[in-house]
Design a protein that fits this description.
- The chain contains 8 helices and no strands.
- By secondary structure, the protein is mostly helical.
- Helix 4 packs across helix 7 and helix 6 runs antiparallel to helix 7.
């Protein structure tokens, strides 16, 4: 092999390495830019689940809905305010599920943020949803169901561990400290 061939191969190797690095950096920039576009959506979702109406709806769906209303009548069979409470939960998670299913936001972010409440709320609403689908042939809240299935398959603890989240237990009260001596 001549010196010229070695230099040409070295130049080619350096060029290919630079190209690969450039492509990786471009892909990273695209991911960062894409995430920035979705930040307002995510922040709005977080804001929505901090209000009194959200907590009231969640509590009702988890503790009173099944006691107060027959499941076989479906979602349309719910009177007010049960229907509004169910809608508050179902529409929110169905929309969030759309964003996850279509890769708009990372499922780990949603699972980490909302955890097993997604599954608990789906389980409470599922009989009404299935009755609605049976009676009206719709794909009613299909994305909510998918989000619940994803969450059940990937527990929040797995998400937290993958992120390397740490804990910091409360510090002891100053009078509870042992004297140094």
């Amino acid at each position: 092999m001549t010196t010229t061939m070695v230099l040409n191969l070295a130049t080619l190797a350096i060029s290919l390495t630079a190209l690969v690095i450039s492509m990786l950096l471009t892909l990273r920039q695209l991911r960062v830019a894409s995430g920035g576009n979705h930040l307002p959506v995510v922040l709005n979702a977080f804001r929505e689940t901090r209000g009194a109406a959200w907590f009231e709806a969640q509590e009702y769906v988890l503790t009173e809905l099944a006691e107060d209303h027959e499941r076989h009548r479906g979602f349309r069979g719910l009177p007010e305010p049960a229907r509004t409470h169910a809608n508050t939960i179902g529409l929110f998670y169905d929309d969030l599920g759309k964003l996850v299913a279509h890769g708009m936001i990372d499922q780990n972010l949603v699972i980490g943020a909302y955890g097993t409440n997604i599954v608990r709320l789906w389980d409470a609403l599922a009989p009404y949803v299935y009755a609605e689908r049976r009676d009206h042939g719709l794909h009613f809240w299909i994305y909510f169901e998918d989000l619940a299935a994803r969450t059940a398959a990937r527990h929040p603890e797995t998400v937290y561990a993958a992120l390397g989240l740490r804990s910091r237990p409360p510090r002891p009260e100053p009078d509870a400290l042992e004297p140094v001596g």
